[in-house]
Amino acid sequence: MTRQEAQDILQSMTTSESLLRHARTVELVMEAYANKLGENATQWAIAGLLHDADYQAYPEQHPNVIVKMLQEKGEAEVAHAISAHYTKWGVSYDTLLDKALIACDEITGFIVACAQVRPQRLEGLEAKSVNKKLGQKSFAASVDRDEVRIGAEMFGVDMKEHISFIIEVLQKHQDELQLTPQVSIE
Fold first, then answer.
1. Which residues are in the HD domain (predicted)?
2. Which of 1, 56, 73, 170 has the highest CB neighbour number within 10 Å of its CB?
C-alpha cells in the first residue's frame, strides 16, 4: 500500500481536523522510529496514519472497520498493529511494529495537547514538562496514562528519551501541524 492510498482511506472516513492532525503526528513519529530502528518506514508510517481512520465514521466498531479493510488489501501486519493499539482490547503484541504503535499513539496526542496550551507551542517544550503534565490527571483527562506507561515499557524505551524523541520529530513539522509559536501583535 502506498502512502497516497492510505491517505485516501483516511480521508474517506475522517473529516475532523483534530483527528487528521493526530493521524499525521502519529504517522510522523512512527516513520521516524522506523528509520531510527532500521524498520520499514512506509509500513510503520501507514500504521500510524491509519490507526484511528475509522474512529469518526464508525466509533462503535473502531478499529474493526479499518482492520478488515487492511486485511482485505493484504496488509496483515499493519492490520494487526492497529487491532492492538489499545492494551485493553486483549490483542497480542507480536512485532516491534505492534509495540511501537501502542507506545506512540497516546503519548503523541498528549504531547500535542501540551504544546497547544503553551504560547510557544513546541518551541522549548521539554520531556520534564510533559512528565509533569502526565501527573496532572485533569489535564488531557481522556489520555489513558496506563497506556502511555505500558506502551513505553513494551517498546523498551525510557519515557524521558521517548518523549524527547517525539517532541524533536514534531518540531521538524511544526508549521505543517500548525504548532508554531503564537505571535503577539502589539
1. 20-102
2. 170
